Amino acid sequence: MSKAREADGGGAASKRIHGSIARKLGVAIVSGQHQPGDVLTNEIDASEQLQVSRSVYREAIRILAAKGLVESRPKTGTRVSARARWQLLDPDVLAWFFESEPSEDFLRELYELRMIVEPAAAALAAQRRDEVQLERMRAALVIMQHETLASEAGRAADRDFHDTVLEATSNGPLFTLSSSIGAAVRWTTIFKQRHSELARDPMPDHWKVFDAIAAGRADQAREAMERLVSLALEDTRASIDAPADQV
Fold first, then answer.
1. 187, 95 in Cβ contact below 8 A?
2. What does the pLDDT look like over 95-115, one tens digit per residue?
3. What is the mean pLDDT of residues 28-44?
């Protein structure tokens, strides 16, 4: 593709290109290759090195800026933002963290977030869910059990289950967290299996959450979800401690 075609920025191919550049730079930033305060290569040199138009590179930088990873200013260039400004719950940013080796502190923080949000959501869902939502939860767990978390279909079903629990709270602001919680569930699940299959079957704990929600028992739903998240954290810690040759 010529730079002239890229320059219009309107085609699907162009969107893939600047998305790929944003991903590459994003991974470099969240993995620490570019530290907060570092100034990135200027637009002209960067576009030449990457063999893309300046408009495509500029759009990639806009993507990163929208996620809080960089800020661009006249004369000073594009600088990596302080970590406090990063949109850590953005699904793309979460994915970029897991393309490298996320720190144990970051993993712990994700589970702390889940422990704050999901047990309370399960309790609300037990009080407010409807039959359609219950059927979607049940269907997701059936697929998850059949496909297992080793497959993309199983992980998608796991995400659908957690999404539906949040939806069943009938709390709009809480449901806006679903894409972030879903991404955290997805990437930590993949991370846990990077060396070997899961040592523990997570399905019984998921069914306990479902059964409590279906029965309308808020306290039991909260406790079941707390246990589910706690055991997931234990699995993650075991995965970190496991030798890399355990495949």
1. yes
2. 999 998 888 899 999 999 999
3. 94
The residue out of 33, 50, 85 marking a domain boundary is 85
Instruction: Confirm if 57 and 43 have CB atoms less than 8 A apart.
Output: yes
Question: Could you tell me if 111 and 217 lie in one domain?
Answer: yes
Same domain, 106 and 65: no
pTM of the model: 0.85
Rounded distance between C-alpha atoms, residue 60 and residue 139, angstroms = 39
HSE-CB of 107 using CA atoms within 13 angstroms: 24
- The three-state DSSP-derived secondary structure of 111-177 is HHHHHHHHHHHHHHHHHHCCHHHHHHHHHHHHHHHHHCCCCHHHHHHHHHHHHHHHHCCCCHHHHCC
Give the domain CATH number at 68: 1.10.10.10
Do residues 123 and 219 lie in contact, with contact meaning Cβ atoms separated by under 8 Å? yes
pLDDT at 17 over 70: yes
Q: Are residues 107 and 215 in the same domain?
A: yes
Residue 11 has pLDDT above 80, yes or no: no
Q: What is the pLDDT of residue 5?
A: 43
User: What average pLDDT does range 24-29 have in this prediction?
Assistant: 96
Beta-carbon contacts of 12 under 8 Å, excluding residues fewer than 6 positions away, are: none
Q: Is residue 246 part of a domain?
A: no
Can you tell me the mean pLDDT for 65-79?
A: 92
What pLDDT is stored for residue 9 in this prediction? 43
Nearest to 65 by CA among 22, 116, 108: 22
